[in-house]
Each structure stands twice: as structure tokens, then as C-alpha cells.
Design brief:
Blueprint lengths: L3 H54 L5 H7 L6 H15 L2 E7 L2 E10 L12 E9 L11
Antiparallel strand pairs: 1-2, 2-3
């Protein structure tokens, strides 16, 4: 059977395999683009939450020390509480550490891929870190 119908079946099978391979490649590329971009956005959001929580914690001054001699010192328990309350308010989870006059916050988040989950990638973990310490306000005219 060497007529046109045999040739069509053989070529048709090759074309179908090529189209299928091309489609799978395009789907993988689309998955990397979409889910990679959304995972990056999740990482940026985690970093923003960590920085904002650290700034919220750095507002917890020890008012007695400040009023006594103008010393900028943190109240560690209040600083942790303010940072944790900020994280809870935005729906983020993380750890808060207060060392000296610095509040450090690390936020972890999990992004659940949409297209990459089709090939078994179910979670992408993202992290953000921020640190802040109290600053004295403007005390004079800047040049």
C-alpha cells in the first residue's frame, strides 16, 4: 500500500507528534512565565510586609527613657507586639526579633502555582526580610 493514503497516515502521525511536542513546550513556557511572575510578586509583597512590620515595631519607644534624657531606646515587648499586630493585620506570617535598637522581621509566604501545578510543582516558598530602628526627626534645616 504505497498510495497517497499510506503517505498521508505516516506524515499525519509525524505532524501530530510535532504539534503535541510544540504545544507541551509552549504550555511549559507559559507556566514558567505566569507562575514565575506571580511568585516574584509574592516575594516582593513578603518583603514589603516585612519592612512595614519592622517600621511599625520601631515606633515602640521606651517613653520613660526618652522623656528622662532624650535617649531613643526600644521597648522590646511592645516592639514585637506592634510588628506582630501589623503582620496579622495584613494576613502575613513571620518572625520578629528585637536586638538593641533594631527590629528585624522575616516573612514567609507560599505561592500556589496555577500552571506549574500540572507538572507537579505545588508550592513555591517566598521570603522577605526587613529591619528598622528608631530615628530622631528633623532637628534643623537641611542644606
Amino acid at each position: 500500500m504505497t498510495g497517497p493514503s499510506f503517505w498521508w497516515r505516516a506524515e499525519h502521525g509525524r505532524v501530530t507528534a510535532f504539534v503535541l511536542a510544540l504545544l507541551i513546550g509552549l504550555l511549559a513556557l507559559a507556566g514558567l512565565s505566569l507562575d514565575g511572575g506571580l511568585a516574584l510578586a509574592s516575594k516582593v509583597r513578603a518583603g514589603g510586609h516585612a519592612e512595614s512590620a519592622a517600621r511599625a515595631g520601631a515606633q515602640a519607644l521606651d517613653l520613660a527613657a526618652y522623656r528622662a534624657d532624650g535617649t531613643l531606646r526600644l521597648d522590646p515587648a511592645r516592639a514585637r507586639d506592634l510588628a506582630q499586630r501589623y503582620l496579622a493585620g495584613v494576613g502575613a506570617t513571620g518572625t520578629v526579633q528585637v536586638a538593641g535598637d533594631t527590629v528585624t522581621v522575616e516573612v514567609t509566604d507560599t505561592y500556589r502555582p496555577q500552571l506549574l501545578s500540572l507538572i507537579g510543582i505545588t508550592d513555591i516558598h517566598t521570603h522577605g526580610r526587613g529591619a528598622a530602628h528608631p530615628q530622631r526627626g528633623v532637628v534643623g534645616i537641611e542644606p
